[in-house]
Design a protein that fits this description.
Length: 527
Amino acid sequence: MIFRSPYPDVQIPSLSVTDYVLQNAAQFGAKAALIDGPTGRTLTYAQLAGAIRLVAANLARRGFGKGDVLAIYSPNLPEYAVAFHAVAMVGGVNTTVNPLYTAAELAQQLQDSGAKYLLTIPLFLEKAQEAAAQTGIEEIFVFGEAAGATPFASLLQRDGAPAAAEMPQVEINPAEDVVVLPYSSGTTGFPKGVMLTHRNLVANMVQMEGVTDANLIETDDTVIGILPFYHIYGMVVIMNYTLAKGATVVTMPRFDMEQFLQLIQDYKITRMNLVPPIVLGLAKHPLVDKYDLSSLKYITSGAAPLSAELAGAAAKRLNCIVMQGYGLTETSPVTHVCPDYKAVDNPGTIGPSLPSTEVIVADVATQQPLGINEPGEIWIRGPQVMKGYLNNPQATAACIDADGWFHTGDIGYADADHYFYIVDRVKELIKYKGFQVAPAELEALLLTHPAIVDAAVIPSTDEEAGEVPKAFVVRKGALEGEELMAWVAARVSPHKKIRRLEFVDEIPKSASGKILRRVLVERERTT
């Protein structure tokens, strides 16, 4: 069966993403749009709109235009939004890069995306120069100043002429023109450029606006911008949708628990879009009790599964609503979100699909549609689904079928109310003697143990069973492996028992909060 959204379909305006985000900027004028949390440096809505036009005009004067690619290799700063939308305004393409990338990883993305310009910070300049030397980068810009790079501030110079007069007329086809090229591994494999159009991003913001019974972002909200803007979650939900709503974003260049809590207190943050590892810290870290977090009203978690137990623990400790959403880079990103009133009663659900979004739950083996409470692979169809993978028609065809369904690679199911639940990834399921074991389920259970700080579960090769679940655990205090394995065994079916265990200092994770199981799998394989 096809699961359809409970919300009415939305009408998607034929606007560029920048026109959509800034359509109400004039009425917000002197209101703070973006604040650099550590320093307090502020861009008002009027300043933001003016800066975008100036940078766009100066990029155009340099010959940067329709279809050209600029790579942003930077942590979260207010000027990130200026650069992003200036590129979009002239019909260019942003390729956003993980600021933790090595020079080799950066070079690979620059080469694959065909980037013309590279924008970074002085701290990353050496890696940026090394990567640029291997690719077709024509010029490196930096936020701030550094020898060997052009200051981004030079793109804010007016040179005596009105910015509007300098702006060329650029015809943008929202449905066809790519505006951002983030990189994703998809369901498997190496990172691939995800071609997202202006319409993809605008559609997703309009779809979020059409969720009538979930309190997402309101104009009077102050939102913490800790999720990286290079990642689709931070880019669209925080940087773009928050600005489109006229709310205020307080940016953080990197996560530090103490500074994070301090900023929530100082700026009276009302809403946070987070990932499960940060929610875990808010639920368990002793520092939390030292700060006044009473301004918090809502937390929305995404990018990785959040257990009902962890959501409930965080909600109780912070006295706020903790809900969950779901999406992927390839879907711009949001496809599901849980209404806040439902999150209180059922914190484990990602909610129903967004307006204009259809879902199939397909049998992994037969590819046939399933029904209520039958787990299978989640397929998505809607206007937020990507145009395809850059220069990779084979990978595109492998995940978007002839009927337009995007095969997510995630295992989930829908209940009788058409509320969805994510169980795990297709590729990460553990096969124990033919039985499927979902790592996320065991991880969620482990995190309920009071002596466990963090945990990850992977398949470990076994001659008899094929694969057995192995847990990597970060503990606090005295906790023995046999004791923990017995504790898990008492709470799960026999095939789900943790049969191997290793205590570690930390769990490897991406900047978006996803457990890097492949790192642990490779470590397991080599040892």
